[in-house]
Amino acid sequence: MSKKIASARISAESSALLKELNDSLPFDKALYREDIRGSLAHARMLKEQGIISAEDYEAIEKGLRQVLEEIESGAFSLDGGDEDIHMAVERRLTEIVGDAGKRLHTARSRNDQVAVDFRMYVLRHDLQIAALLRKLITTLLERAEEHAETLLPGMTHLQHAQPTNLGYHLMAYASMFRRDLERFLDSYERNNLSPLGCAALAGTPHPVDRQMTAKELGFRAPTLNCLDSVSDRDFALEILFNIATMMMHISRLSEELILWSTSEFGFVRLSDKHATGSSIMPQKKNPDIPELLRGKTGRAYGNLVSLLTVMKGLPLAYNKDTQEDKEGVFDSVHTAELSLRVLREMIDEMSVDREAMERACMRGHLTATDLADWLVREAGLPFRDAYHIVGNVVNRAEELGKDISQMTPEELAEVDARIAPEACTLLDNRASMNARASEGGTATVRTREQIGQMREWLEGL
Ligand code: ARG
């Protein structure tokens, strides 16, 4: 068990049980880089402000670099039983440089130390996730371009509704992922403020320069109020919410890919990499990868709700409950980054069966609305009357065992004499898809326009 360096008033060694509950090193060791970076900036500021001597600073600086090297090479193990990453780094530093190491914690508390470390971690991943989203959107745009003419039965209630194209469908997802990306960037901007120098809760009598450490660590500025800064975890909640929402989008897309790769649909085939076999049924290819993406969404929601719950009753300022902020964030970040990489690859490599999609458009009378619109436009009927006439046409098509798009002008006129032969051309699925050329609509020209606008936005990022 490590020698306690922060226990002037606690004499008995903690029981193993208490240590297991109390210690965060087993997980917050992931913050070692941020912790050392934060300490380097703090030490330099202490020297510049005349709070520690230049000699002590040099010893600390060299020592911290050595600790970093030792952690990365494995020479200094982070499984040594220290309470947390902050105590572990400080202990090792003091072993290496002696008394100078004990001066590092001047004008600082673990409360502002952990706040700055964790914020740097979260901000870094806000940007990393945004970069991965950018790659995913780029791939979606490529596939959308390739399939801007591939007919796809658009659905509501999972029932055939109107003809669309696959590119348009993919652009719907690209739009969701664009909002996700913007959310990560917004969060980055809002939270890019340094809590370092806030000390325990009330600031410090030492003449610290928070502007300097903020700048050195790449923050826009220091935070406004120290009491808030050591207890606030909004930045962590934001990344959890952003990830939960993004995973919800990933999950919806995964669900469609699972459905589309069934023998009932047969619209897409996932590459062999993204499917696995069954241990008993030799013929099977299961979509385990999109299923896992859908399944992992659950833990992303859980992590968000869990931290919201941890925070809800906490009086100001720091409380140890806050230590519960990290594992969920680490887990969500890992899940998000892995999911984005896998999803991009899966979209890139899946093969699309255009014929199957087009064949599916021949079921479900997708162009019925077009005929009703024609009756309104060309025959001057009120929409409700047109709606009823087309209902009769659909009944007749079912009697004939055809799709509405296969009815002849004669068959149509038999149902209602006002349906002129020219209306027939509207019933073609592709004509119908291209007729929906209103802004943001499915027509191939509009789909291409959306792709172009999204590409412009992406390039301007
Ligand atoms: N391991 C702690 C955490 O993650 C560091 C802060 C401890 N501060 C304190 N006053 N006990 O929250």
UniProtKB/TrEMBL annotation:
Keywords: Amino-acid biosynthesis, Arginine biosynthesis, Cytoplasm, Lyase
Location of the Argininosuccinate lyase C-terminal domain: 365-433
Catalytic reaction annotation: 2-(N(omega)-L-arginino)succinate = fumarate + L-arginine
PROSITE patterns in alphabetical order: FUMARATE_LYASES (PS00163)
Single GO MF descriptor: argininosuccinate lyase activity
Domain Fumarate lyase N-terminal: 9-302
UniProt similarity note: Belongs to the lyase 1 family. Argininosuccinate lyase subfamily.
Protein name: Argininosuccinate lyase
Native source species: Nitratifractor salsuginis (strain DSM 16511 / JCM 12458 / E9I37-1)
Lineage: Bacteria, Pseudomonadati, Campylobacterota, Epsilonproteobacteria, Campylobacterales
Gene name per UniProt: argH
